[in-house]
Amino acid sequence: MAEPDAALPSRRRRQDRSGVGGAGDRPRGGGRDHGRHRGGADDRFGATLEALGGLARDGAAVSASVIDTSSGKALLAVDDTLVQPVASLGRVLLLIEVAAQLEDGGLHGDRLQRMARDTATGAGLWQFLQESTMQVSDLATLVGATADAWAMNALLSTVGIDAVRERAESLGIERTALIDRVRDRRGPDDAPDASVAATGELSWLFRGLALGEVVDEAVSNRVLGWLSLSSDLSLVAGSFALDPLAHRSLDHGLQVVSVTGSSLGVRAEAGILRGPASSVSYAVTVTFDDATLQRRLAVVDALRTMGTEVLAAVHQPARR
Description:
- The chain is an alpha+beta fold.
- It has one domain: Beta-lactamase, CATH 3.40.710.10.
- The protein is built from nine helices and ten strands.
- The strands form three sheets. A five-stranded antiparallel beta sheet has the order 2-1-10-9-8.
- Strand 1 (61-68) and strand 2 form a beta hairpin.
- Helix 2 runs antiparallel to helix 9 (293-313), helix 3 (91-103) runs antiparallel to helix 4 (136-146) and helix 3 (91-103) packs across helix 6 (161-170).
- It starts with 12 loop residues before the first helix and ends in a 7-residue tail after the last helix.
- The relative contact order is 0.20.
- InterPro entries: Beta-lactam/transpept-like (IPR012338), Beta-lactam_cat (IPR045155), Beta-lactam_class-A (IPR000871).
- GO terms for molecular function: beta-lactamase activity.
- Pfam families: Beta-lactamase2 (PF13354).
- This is Beta-lactamase class A.
- Residues 65-286 form the Beta-lactamase class A catalytic domain.
């Protein structure tokens, strides 16, 4: 991935489009036939089912989806139509809209001012930098790399949450939404979380990005380029043994683009992993009682188990 906006599996896109479930079989970006699988798994995901089942028995709400990028075949589906809070993971929808407006000239080379209305003490770097204005593309880079709360809020104030929603709807995204800005505290009149999602839609969305079908190839490439900088490999991607600060290039035949969402009682991740034999898109969300460190560690351990089996899947040829 030499260029900042290069798409993850660009070398394979032509052959991927000829597979079952490719562009000719569904609307661009995933369409309204995604997320139909409500249960079941390829036999390579037995440990994942057991780990997620253990969380569910302890009272957590779990949802997971893994899809073969080339064929569109579901390899894992656990309540993948269930809509759950995913913290700031919905920023991927914001980045899609920002990329689309950059491509169509709506944003040009705009510089945005850091405003008091955008402040939030959550993730990110802009709040610690001396530079008070930045170009839109640089802010999108911060959002992709560090889930930067100030940058995300500034971009959302600029493009508008209605535009983000309309773009998602045009892509056939019905259960996944960015519903609010990042806030330090959520009052009774605020949304309970920044975004919600269904894992079936998220895995299809990442498949669409990988195939260059989310809006178009240029937009997909921009979004993948920003997300490829993500420094959070603490959940599913923590099992891939990649450098969390530098994993854009192939490393032992692996390349990952992922996005995470974390808040009290929420751990979520979606992404695409390219491997020596195949490529898969995946998503998982767990909402749980975050009363003790042990419960949180159990969730992280289950997501790492899923990551181990996602890793194994891309080392094996796709099954027909």
